[in-house]
Amino acid sequence: MASLVFEFQECIDEVQTLSKFASSFLEPRAIFLLSQFAIALKGIRSSPAGSQNRLQIPFDDPVRTNTSYGEYEPEGNGAHNVRAELSSVWEISPNDPAATRTKPHRTFALSGLASTRVRIVQVLPGDETRELARWRMEIGDDASPGTYFHVQILGEDGDAIFPKSLPVPRLPGLLCS
Fold first, then answer.
1. Distance CA 38, CA 44 (A)
2. Is residue 40 left, alpha or beta, with left meaning phi > 0 and alpha meaning psi from -120 to 50?
3. Average pLDDT of adjacent 10-residue blocks, the chain of 177 residues
4. 120 and 134 in contact (C-beta within 8 Å)?
């Protein structure tokens, strides 16, 4: 399968737009993490063609939403106080052969791992959390089994509904962002 190619500026614009329009729903650190993500994209845009670069929002420092104190159900009747946590890792390579020091790369190719993880956690007293739900949206590489674009539900812990030892379900993903 041919490499997937993305435009740097479109991705930078998407991250900046997300940060701007979602800011009232995000913890303050999330805005910083998204700005660092955009800065990393800009830096990779100037790296040598074909270089392997890891672009990420770390699993141990995810973008977090503000806590919803039951507001996710009508009249605030949700059973839990919850927040979402988003982390991501993409391995990318700038691939514009016409790029120079003064004219950075316009595009990059997906050159390895591409995984975005979303967790819904219950916020307990003392800011302790308990995971309620998790899924990953992934783009497989040429060696990956199953569908190229897919969503995995859970699949990391031995006690999960879909433990790591059972690599299903891999649901086809129609959109990847």
1. 10
2. alpha
3. 81 94 95 96 90 94 93 80 91 87 89 86 89 80 65 56 46 50
4. yes
Distance of CA 153 to the CA centre of its chain: 15
**What residues form DSSP beta bridges with 7?**
107
Q: Which residues of 71-89 are buried (b: 16+ CB within 10 A; e: fewer)?
A: eeeeeeeeebbbbbbbbbb
CA distance 62 to 120: 12
Cα separation, 132 vs 121, whole angstroms: 5
Q: What is the pLDDT of residue 146?
A: 63
Domain limits for position 46: 5-172
pLDDT at 98: 81
Residue 177 within any structural domain of the chain? no
15, two tokens: 């991250």
Total number of domains in the chain: 1
101 occurs within a structural domain: yes
pTM here is 0.80
Query: What is the Cα–Cα distance from 80 to 123, expressed in whole angstroms?
Result: 8
